[in-house]
UniProtKB/TrEMBL annotation:
InterPro entries per UniProt: AAA+_ATPase (IPR003593), ABC_transporter-like_ATP-bd (IPR003439), ABC_transporter-like_CS (IPR017871), ABC_transpr_LolD-like (IPR015854), MacB-like_ATP-bd (IPR017911), P-loop_NTPase (IPR027417)
GO cellular component: membrane protein complex; plasma membrane
Keywords: ATP-binding, Nucleotide-binding, Transport
Organism lineage string: Bacteria, Bacillati, Actinomycetota, Actinomycetes, Propionibacteriales
Name by which UniProt lists this protein: ABC transporter ATP-binding protein
One Pfam family cited in the UniProt record for this chain: ABC_tran
GO molecular function: ATP binding; ATP hydrolysis activity; transmembrane transporter activity
């Protein structure tokens, strides 16, 4: 199975000298094609740094990241932007929609920015797929939070990129809406073959993924497949116990 996102001994150090922080301390991991992976771990364990390095939004201090088989090492900003546009979509906790644009205009924006002509039939299909067929002319302010996140998901599908990175995509949503959004993400990987890497704090959200990787102190310490909310929560509890210094 190919790995559209491959990290090899990735280290990320913030700062220098005694105050330096090893946010990633040698991560080697491949996100397999068509899989939905949740990244979990205690606060400060390096989840966002991992996602940002994997997506080429931040550069590692050492090690290598490959996106769609292409090493990011040595790419200049223009080449990196081009590669990201071709291969990667993002879904953020805060939706990141343009308020002045309609649903449809938001969905095609990455394509417009890349100078590509959108496939109109596919755009209509992805908007329908996320349940917003009747609202394609609405602006984000006229939509609920869950509907806005659906627009972001449609946007992640419109360009047919191989990879979606999602950073706490359900963090701002109520439980029911969150589950609907997670189902869409899961379908996106199962039915359309997208590779999805999602950072989350929520064991229920993680249980929608095919596998969960656990980070502690910038290292992957465990991985589970076919996660259930209970198993993920138990795993996390174990990790935080391990992480808590013994009382003296
Ligand atoms: N720009 C930065 N400058 C300095 N230190 C940073 C920077 N970004 C992150 N860090 C540090 O790197 C470590 C990992 O941070 P990161 O945000 O990746 O963790 P996280 O697991 O996503 O945390 P959370 O769950 O709280 O969002 C933390 O110790 C954090 O303080």
């Amino acid at each position: 199975m190919s790995t559209p996102v491959q990290l090899t001994d990735v280290r990320k150090v913030y700062g220098t000298g005694p105050g330096a922080v090893d946010a990633l301390a040698g991560v080697t991991y491949g996100f397999a094609a068509g899989t939905f992976t949740a990244v979990m771990g205690p606060s400060g364990s390096g989840k966002s740094t991992l996602l940002h390095c994997a997506a080429g939004l931040d550069s590692p201090t050492s090690g290598d990241v490959q996106l769609a088989g292409r090493s990011l090492r040595g790419l200049d900003e223009t080449a990196l932007t081009e590669l990201r546009r071709e291969q990667v979509a993002f879904v953020f906790q805060s939706f990141n929609l343009m308020p002045a644009l309609t649903v449809r205009q938001n969905v095609v924006l990455p394509l417009t920015l890349a100078g590509k002509a959108p496939d109109d039939a596919w755009v209509t299909e992805v908007i329908r797929r996320v349940g917003l067929g009747e609202r394609s002319k609405h602006r984000p302010s006229e939509l609920s939070g869950g509907q806005q996140q659906r627009v972001a998901i449609a946007r992640a599908l419109a360009g047919r990129t191989a990879i979606t990175f999602a950073d706490e995509p359900t963090g701002a949503l109520d439980t029911t809406t969150a589950l609907e959004v997670l189902t869409l993400l899961r379908d996106q990987s199962r039915e359309l073959g997208q590779t999805i890497a999602m950072v989350t704090h929520d064991p229920v959200a993680a249980s929608y993924a095919d596998r969960v990787v656990f980070l502690v102190d910038g290292q992957i310490v465990a991985e589970t497949t076919h996660p259930t909310p209970e198993a993920v929560a138990a795993h996390l509890a174990q990790l935080s116990t391990r992480n808590t210094p013994n009382p003296t």
